[in-house]
Amino acid sequence: MITFDNTYTSLPEKFYVKVQPEAVPHPQLFAFNDELARQLGLDLSSLSEEQRAAIFTGQALPEGASSLSLAYAGHQFGQFNPQLGDGRALLLGEVVAPNGERYDIQLKGSGATPWSRGGDGKSWVGPVIREYIVSEAMHHLGVPTTRALAAATTGERVFRESPLPGGIFTRVASSHIRIGTFEYFAARRDTESLKILADYAIDRHYPQCRRAENPYLAFLEEVGQRQAALVAKWMSLGFIHGVMNTDNMAISGETIDYGPCAFMDIFSSQKVFSSIDRGGRYAYGNQIRIAQWNLAQLANCLVPLVDADSNSSVKKLQQCISPLMDIYDEEWLKAMAARFGIFEPRSEDAEIVQAFLSNLEEQGLDFTIEFRRLADWMARKCSEDSPDATEDDGLKSFREMWLRRVGQQSQSLEQVAQQMQQSNPVYIPRNHQVERAIQAALAGDFSVFERMNDCLKKPFEKRDEFAEFELAPEPREVVTATFCGT
Ligand code: AMP
Ligand code: MG
After folding, report:
1. Is the per-residue pLDDT at 388 higher than 60?
2. Where are the chain's structural domains?
3. pLDDT tens-place string over residues 39-82
4. With a 6 A CB cut-off, is 21 part of the ligand 1 pocket?
């Protein structure tokens, strides 16, 4: 069974509302992540398929479940909304995994809540499939992220532009505290609740901050470091989150709320996918600036907690976020350098990375394929005696610079090649394939979804049976815009 250990319920009642999930006609699981269930220490072996489906669609709340929708606010595309909250989600409860870590288990699409603002609180299967595939792929690519425990159909039609089959997604996160959760109380000038939230967040995620001279400053610094590292990882993989609103930024530093997100095919530094992002606010190349802007909103919230004198408080908080760009540059270089087989990056190495990226952009090349091609080229160079003969492809000056650099390392070229094989994925969840998995599921066929998940469990290992997932989209398959999750 699930042994819940709920702590959010011990917070004051204004932090959440208790809700009951809605009844659905025919709950059926089409995916269950056994491996994750094991890591969480869930023992569901005694349950029938029906019982499991009932739990992960909210039809039967297990003993000890909390069933809460959480309060939060948020800046959406720069506009502040003082009241968002879980409009289509509920927290089933928290579990402590055998590794000692605490996790939230949340249902998404389980029906209306007091925060639904006229929405139905539901989801159709498309976004459920997208979030399942992409969040699991991110995990296997080594990016901090929420995870997918289960996915179900409800047997109900959900009305969007047309009627679509309903779905419910079960998400696991190290918590659901967002920057927007802080903004909720800050906007109400409820300093008492703000302090309770900050203390809770520190105890849960950054207990080492307790020992700092000022725990709230230390907390902001930690959140900033995690955000910078996270965005650096996204950038190194060509990932675009799509809706970096402050309510979609977890203070744990995990990627959360996969809506109109996407991995780039052809590299473009200003690529935008989201159909609602008309100004390009959340474009690929803007992501760190937005993370910085979001962090400034968190800093604003913390003003009353840091110092009785708000001017001095603001100054101290500003000092905490000012190193963000430097941390990001370092993390970005670390993540990128690994893709080139550079073990101890130096700031000059950014030139090598930039030379490669500029070439991709000028020639309109596929981000993932070209990186992997470079890794394969290095592997061949190590195994052949006469490599390098025919290569004159616009990358000549880059390759000279790069080879000189990797040649100076104490590691052998074999080690370089190995490092590159492990940092340059063969498979990413390409948008046109995610779309294909969704379309097949709409026709009742979940096999594309299943194969894609299987494939993406080992993104760095080339396997012939998954050749279709390596390919860039044909012109007719290119997805130019992704739509919001609802
Ligand atoms: P998101 O797009 O997931 O970041 O959601 C933004 C806000 O809209 C959150 O408060 C959601 O709970 C709410 N929301 C999104 N979809 C729905 C829906 N179908 N019904 C009710 N609320 C929703
Ligand atoms: Mg959201």
Report:
1. no
2. 8-173, 179-331, 341-486
3. 999 999 899 999 999 999 999 999 999 999 999 999 999 999 99
4. no
Active site residue 265: no
C-alpha to C-alpha distance for 191 and 184, rounded to whole angstroms: 11
Please report the atom of ligand 1 found closest to the CA of residue 118. Answer: 21
Ligand 1 contact, 121 CB (< 6 A): yes
CB 175 within 8 A of CB 104: yes
pLDDT tens profile 260-286? 999 999 999 999 988 888 889 999 999
Ligand nearest to the CA of 73: 1
Residue (of 360, 356, 334) closest to 402 by Cα position:
356
Lowest mean pLDDT among 101-105, 396-400, 425-429: 396-400
* Cα 6 to Cα 16: distance, rounded to the nearest angstrom: 13
With cut-offs at 50, 70 and 90, classify the pLDDT of residue 1. Answer: confident
